[in-house]
Amino acid sequence: MSSDRISRRVHTVPASGIRRFFDIAATMPDVISLGVGEPDFITPADIRAAGQYSINHSTAYTSNSGLKELREALAEHLYGRYGVSYDPETELLITVGVSEAMINTGLAILNPGDEVLVPEPCFVAYTASIIFADAKPVFIPTSAADGFQVSAAALEAAITPRTKAILIGFPNNPTGAVMSRERLIEVSKVAERHNLVVISDEIYDRLIYGVDHICFPTLPGMRDRTVLLGGFSK
Known about the structure:
234 residues, alpha/beta, Aspartate Aminotransferase, domain 2, 5-stranded parallel beta sheet
């Protein structure tokens, strides 16, 4: 298909820099990739057996929200791990990974021209998920000198009448940074002052060492202001 048939929306999405590195690495011998958040061990036998059983016995459509049993188990998991309670019938949605969840969230809450504050460095799909919703990513720089922590002052300085949400991802991909509870509370206060939605990508919540992960919706006043994204692939 010729490029003139592709939508302007798609043309505005930058190509993935990570994929470019993969292409370069593929041309070089003896390259060891340390860049993909993908487990390198074989899927446990009981999970493989359950998948095989399902394929052999049932491949029917499920609920648009995902399997009820899975949503109920996820609600139990989140409550047991973080003490945050969600109704599996009305507040949990199963997606094919966090990238789909980000696209769905953008389409659900963003209007054309809305702005989303995005601390960077960040995961490459953040930009695309915002652009696909006809919204605008506004990047907030962070630095190694400060441990890649998000500054409340920097967020405040970037807010305009079009700002609708803050999209954060901690533990962070690609830096590995972890936000302190104090800094997260500062972010939450910015969101509260300006009536912003917080989209919190916490897919790496279990790849963390030496400190505790702070689940953003557990912060005071944030449960009903936060769209929590997570998964089990990491």
